[in-house]
Design brief:
The complex is a heteropentamer, with one copy of chain A, one copy of chain B, two copies of chain C and one copy of chain E. Chain A has helices at 3-14, 17-59, 62-67, 83-114, 117-132, 135-151, 162-186, 190-198, 203-214, 216-232, 235-240, 258-267, 275-304. By secondary structure, chain A is mainly α. Chain A folds into two domains: 2-59; 83-308, MetI-like (MetI-like fold). Chain A is globular, with a radius of gyration of 26 Å. Chain A has 13 helices and no strands. Chain C is of the alpha/beta class. In chain C, 34% of the residues lie in helices and 25% in strands. The longest helix of chain C has 14 residues, at 129-142. Classes of the chains: A mainly alpha, B mainly alpha, C alpha/beta, E alpha/beta. Chains A and B meet through α2, α4, α5, α6 and α9 of A and α1, α3, α4, α5 and α6 of B. The structure holds adenosine-5'-triphosphate (2 copies), magnesium ion (2 copies) and phosphate ion. One magnesium ion binds next to α1 of chain C. Chain B: The chain crosses the membrane at residues 23-43, 72-100, 120-138, 145-165, 219-238, 274-297.
Amino acid sequence: MAQTTLKSRSRQIYKPKLARQVKEKVIEFILFLAAFSSVATTVAILYILIKESFLFFQEVPIVDFLTGTKWTPLFVNPQYGILPLLSGTLMSAGVALAVAIPMGTIAAIYLSEFATKRVREIAKPALELLAAIPTVVYGYFALLYVTPFLQNFFPKLPGFNILAAGLVMGLMIIPFISSISEDAMSAVPVGLREGSYAMGATKLQTALKVVFSAAISGISSSYILGTSRAVGETMIVAIAAGLRPNLTWNPFDQAATITAFIVQVSLGDLPHGTIAYQTIFAAGLTLVLMTLLLNIIGHFLAKTYREIY
Amino acid sequence: MPTTNLRKLRTNLNRRKLINSGFAFLGATIIAIAIIILLGLTLKMAFQGAERITPEFFTSFPSRRASRAGILSAWVGTCLVMLVTAMAAIPLGVASGIYLEEYAKKNWLADLIEINVTNLAGVPSIIYGLLALGLFVYELRLGQSILSAGLTLALLILPVVIVTTRESIRAIPNSLREASYALGASKWQTIWDHILPYSFGSILTGVIIGLSRAIGETAPIITIGALTFIAFLPKSPFKSEFPFLSFEWLQAPFTVMPIQMFNWVSRPQAAFEINAAAAGTVLIGMTLGINAIAIFLRYQLRKDIKW
Amino acid sequence: MVINNSHEQITSIPKAEVADLDFYYGSFHALKGINMTLPEHSVTALIGPSGCGKTTFLRCFNRMHDLYPGNRYEGSIWLDKDTNILGRKVDPIEVRMRISMVFQRPNPFPKSIYENVAYGLRVRGENNRRLMDEKIEDALRVSALWDEVKDRLNESAYNLSGGQQQRLCIARALVADPEIVLFDEPTSALDPIATASIEELMSTLKDRVTILIVTHSMQQAARISDHTAFMYLGELIEFGRTKDVFNKPLNQQTEDYISGRIG
Amino acid sequence: MVINNSHEQITSIPKAEVADLDFYYGSFHALKGINMTLPEHSVTALIGPSGCGKTTFLRCFNRMHDLYPGNRYEGSIWLDKDTNILGRKVDPIEVRMRISMVFQRPNPFPKSIYENVAYGLRVRGENNRRLMDEKIEDALRVSALWDEVKDRLNESAYNLSGGQQQRLCIARALVADPEIVLFDEPTSALDPIATASIEELMSTLKDRVTILIVTHSMQQAARISDHTAFMYLGELIEFGRTKDVFNKPLNQQTEDYISGRIG
Amino acid sequence: VPAVKSQSGSIIKIDGSSTVYPITEAVAEEYQIENKGATQVTVGVSGTGGGFKKFCSEDEAVRTDISDASRPIKEEEMAMCEAAGVEYIEIPVAYDAITVVANPENPIESMTVEELAQIWDPESEGEITNWSQVNPEWPDAEFVLYGPGADSGTFDGFTDKINGDEGASRTDYTPSEDDNVLVQGVSSDPNALGYFGYSYYEENQDKLKAIAIDAGEGAVVPSVETVRDGSYAPLSRPIYIYVNAQAAEKPEVAEFVEFYLTNAEGLVPEVGSVPLTPEEYQEGIARFQNGETGTTAAK
Ligand SMILES: Nc1ncnc2c1ncn2[C@@H]1O[C@H](COP(=O)(O)OP(=O)(O)OP(=O)(O)O)[C@@H](O)[C@H]1O
Ligand SMILES: Nc1ncnc2c1ncn2[C@@H]1O[C@H](COP(=O)(O)OP(=O)(O)OP(=O)(O)O)[C@@H](O)[C@H]1O
Ligand SMILES: [Mg+2]
Ligand SMILES: [Mg+2]
Ligand SMILES: O=P([O-])([O-])[O-]
């Protein structure tokens, strides 16, 4: 090949350098801004919550807020103890998790280790539908079908109660646990599974002793996710668990959760700037801190039990 | 191997196999129970609402008389809100996903964004409602409008879109990236010509799943204050004079399907319970329809793409 | 068509006998009419070009193919002349308790060193700590790992080097006194030093068990095995004493392979 | 320390010259003081045991290592004596436009056959359909694929067989008239027949371009290359005309490798 | 309601009392049918207090044109309105009876004002929790209370008239601005007791039982007659709409208010409330047309 063609060829390809580099940089910057928008969202959430809560805590001592056993912010002698809302939140989440964790885990083990490919391909999306149903529909189920059904066995059960809301919420949370756990278990390398089968283990032994422990990080993060779902779930409890702040540990009782309180107050359309308006932000801040704490725990769990195979 | 030994081995084996089958039965039962309960409740609702699901139900506004009340303003509102949500969440989420997967260097900033996205995914939806109330309604003065609601839900599903975008991009084998670079493509060329087209389908699937979640969200919309009697439609986005597009509808008051259902659920008259059941059935139908599209897309993609 | 150019001089007692074995992955006919005997207390090597079916054959011995749908065996593998491993009524789990396996890549469980070896006993419901300690120490000694790990039995197995992990897997395979141990290219993921230590192990192991090993290295086969089987395109082409197969192959294809002309 | 036992008889014009090349994956020193010339219009083979750095070396020529963080080059590779490929101011994208690459596994884009080849032109902003048609036909002809695909240029490239896909990748690499084409074990994922057709191609290609190829098969190196470089543990041990390297290696390690004693 | 295509402009924003809501909703519905969607009306339910907070808001984006109220505007609300420069016209639209309801399974038929006060007194919180503590003849069972929230005019009216002090109430009950929630609660719990506007009882007579109230002259059950003749005491009261005087100058608002008052007589009974007399409605129209601002209700 002649030397001249080589030269001209190289000149041709050296040409568009600067324009291209500028374009690449601009695009990268735009994409960065987009990615950063999620950080901006978090900052905005914290800003709004902290700003309003700050005003709130100027009126209400933080100790009273954390230790008070009565939550009556809208009455004549308002009391701002978050404990009743907290107990409602924890109780309903507790009932839900008592349903969802065992059922979700067993379903995940079954799907990943026992089910045939066909069954898995049908059952997994079918289970995922449980999470796709709008929560307002679940609230409807809990209030109009599940509570009356439970009243057949527990005649004293009030019309609004934690139990029905929690049970239905548990049903909704199952797929968060089963799907993510199943993914984690499926990701366990075939080599480990075959190692166990080659020792003469049954499917169950392989599933529980090898696959489960190898996938523990993914499984524990599914529990964390399920928990933060349960704690933050709103419509089911707002519709079916009752709106009365009630410091109780009895699931047969009615009780308002943090989320239900926010919804209830929002329905009344509180105007900007009143203390009643600020209460929902203080309650929201509490909720965010709870879920943040859960996430941090999840992060640690994932770190300690990182999948190492 | 001595036969006594073999016999011991077999007894032990039989016990283990029994436990094994017991568990398999338990697992299948649990899955079946969960699905049957869901199916049972849904069908019960559908039967209860069936008498109300007529064409008029879709073309009537809400009314104080249950038998005349319909979901026209609700489903139109839902569609418009979803439109805003999709328009905001898709570009933002896809761009973020691309940045995180293809550009971000391993540094504290990338870690921050990454951890932040995970965290946002766990923030309860009602908190987005509070954000919207404080930010969109009061600080930015967007009012209790379709725009506020759409943006709120867009932020809510942003983590879903980001995560699925990242996963779809990650599923593209590195060999294709290297092939493109080796031909002298720049980074953006590689992304635009290869990464995006090849992951388009699965990103779309993720977005649709995100939207199907947004469609049923009630709490954040209640928080911005949308529970009202709305018996009219927002202005049409099209008009006869130039420039033919109108954005007034963005500012309009609105209601959406889950809010309408919530409204009817909390009415005590049995007749409205039927409406609520009918609206719930339609809402589930919409959600399932959207999910079915997503599943179909995913299936089509699996069939076509094999790298 | 069954080609079986066995040399006649196999002397030891047969531990297992393969008779007319065919194997199918769905419709793909991967093993074709294999007949072979596995002599007791000796090392038998399977060699052949990539894709010829060595791994497939090996995994018939502990019914590993049962784990995946669509696989089909035909023919039989007789263990001690009385049990057909492939028999319909024979439980694959029982087979696997008698015939254990070591894989190509070390695959210790994400558990402690102790628990990895203990697993072979625990699946049988063994819980007696004294007995387990004893057996585990024994297995680790035989696998030439005891001295290196005896002070850190509770550490994670993932802290070990690749070679140590593979020896751990060997200990795990040995702990419950299997009759046959199958090795599928056990050193292909290891460096030369780790490889040497595992090869050294082999010769001591055959006092306890019968060994069947797949290897892609002819040199390795020559170094460690007593008998060698050469496979090609799913068929067993030649089987005999290692030195015979390597020095005076009966079959042209074997010779081509050994001299590097094919593969 | 630079070991460079080059035979002296290299005759053709150097297309590229490697001078004191070191390469690091993070802190891992993968290439150590390599000096070599790449003769123009000829096929140069890189051989050596697995992990010796062949792929790493090859990917220095088109700056592929720039794609991943933590990689570091030292030294230089002069192209046509005037451009240092590794130079700080040289844009890797330009390098890749002049030096293209074919990978170990065929990696066509999930696009049509036509668009696969066209992509090499499109990245340069070429859009003239007539000119593209011409160049694409030419590239496909040179890659001995034209006759097989000319009637189905709009079909997906995934409908082609592995060997056809690899030839498509070669056409893609050739379409924009590169000066050097790098091949990284281009036949290792292919069956013998496909391999033969690609080997055949090589000899016709060298009229257009300079070829550097990594292969794990010494036979292949012997068959297709004009010059051979033997690498070991990140160093270039021996470099010279292929027949010299294979028949009278200067270095003991080369001889050991060629005779199968190591690797 | 048949579909009406949206075409033009103005929106009338209404919010406030849940007691008035059914009436306003019915009027809005009829008005929009008649009007073919030319004017759009939104009706929210925030409770009387919540409604006034919006009605008198400085923020125009939030401010409503009309506020539903189940009690007259309070001093502090007047001050808020003044600060925001909002003038208003007060128009009564119906009578209401705050109705005390129990589950139909509950054997109690009537209560004296004192008994009611004892149940709802702030002092009783945590102390009085059982029917029999109030009246030994009543069942020995814990009661469960439902009532409106603190933004509610009904709450203000009830506490004022029963406990003698506006806002004085025990707090360990289920509060909701949405009376439908209260109906749900009482109807699903045999030991429940609640109170809310008459129309919510009227609509749900099959699930609820109205408790007769004895203010010293014998127990009286709420009904259209007992409200009209004043014998259902002390829990009867007029209910209002408040119209922003500035907004009233807009023709569509004026048209709507007049439509409201001319059709109220027919629509009020339909939603289970007690209508005013035709003369009273005429007076209201006159007040409105004359633009008489301020409140006339005796405090
Ligand atoms: N799960 C499977 N399904 C279908 N075909 C398979 C499967 N596993 C292996 N094969 C095919 O069966 C044949 C034998 O494979 P096998 O893995 O036994 O070869 P091998 O001799 O062990 O090769 P290597 O040395 O590469 O491990 C090959 O053609 C392979 O492609
Ligand atoms: N991305 C990487 N990061 C760190 N080390 C690497 C990386 N890629 C390769 N190496 C190491 O660099 C050395 C050379 O690897 P390279 O892939 O160049 O070998 P090779 O000669 O091509 O081997 P093969 O024949 O197996 O392809 C090996 O020790 C390898 O482990
Ligand atoms: Mg194999
Ligand atoms: Mg390589
Ligand atoms: O909603 P209220 O009528 O009780 O104010």
